[in-house]
Amino acid sequence: MAESSSSSKPMSADHSLAATLQLDGILFDIVIECSPTDAANPTLEGLQMAVVDAREQTTDAHPLDRTSPIMWRYRGVIELLRDMGQLVIIVQSEDAGEFGFLDLTGKISQYLGSMATVRADSYKHKLITEGEPSLWITFAVSAVEQQPFRQLLSVPLSKLDKLSETPDQSEESMTGNDCFKAGTNLLRRFQETGSLTDISNAIEKLQLAVSFTPEDHQNMPLYLNKLGNSLWRRFEQIEDPDDISAAVECHRKAVELTPEGHPHMPARLNNLGSSLFKHFEYTEDLADINAAIEHYRKSIKLTPEGHPDAPSWLNNLGSAFATRFMRTGDLDDISTAIEHHRKSVELTPEGHPDMPSGLDNLGKSFLERFDNTGDLDDLSAAIKHKEKLVKLAPEGHPSMHSWLNNLGNLTSKRFEQTRDLDDLSTAIEYQQKTVKLTPEGHPDLPSWLDNLGNSFLERFRQTGNLGDVTAAIKHHQKSVELTSERHPNMPSWLNNLGTAFFKRFEQTGDPDDIAAAIAHYQKSVVLTPEGHPNLSAQLNNLGSSFFARFDEIGGLSNLSAAIEHQQESVRLVPEGHSDMPRQLSNLGNSFLMRFGQTGDLTDLSAAIEHHQKSVELTPKEHPGMPSWLNNLGNSFLKRFEQTGDLDDIVAATEHYQKSVRLTPEKHPDRPSRLFNLGQLFFKRFMQTRNLNFCQGAAFNYCLAATQNTGGPTLRLRAAQQWAVCCGFLQDYPASLGAFEVALKLLPLVASLDQTVQNRHANLLRISGLTHQSVTMALLLQRVDLALEWFEQGRCLTWSQLNQLRTPVDDLRQHDARLAERFLAVSKALETSGSRPETSWQPNSTITQQIAAEDQVRSQLKLAKEWEQLLKNIRDFPNFNNFLLPPRASNILSQLPTDGPIVIINIDDVGCNCNALALIHGADEPIHIRLNNFTHEKAKLLRNQLGYHLTYEKLRIRDSNDRGGRVARRPDTGLHHILRELWHGVVWPILQGLGYSSPPAKRNRIWWCTTGPLTFLPIHAAGIYDPEAKSPGPCVSDFVVSSYIPTVTTLLEKLKNDTTVERQETKVLLLSQPNALAHAPIPGTTEETRNVLEQMKETHIEALLLEDGEGTKDRVTEEMGTHGWIHIASHASQHPNEPLKSGFYLHDGQLELLEIIRQQLPSAEFAFLSACQTSVGDEKLSEEAVHLAAGMLAAGYQGIVATMWSIKDQYAPKIAEDFYEFLLQEKRESGAHRLDSRRAAYALDDATRKIRGRLGDSESALLTWVPYIHLGL
Question: In Å, how far from its chain's centre is CA 97?
Answer without folding.
Answer: 44
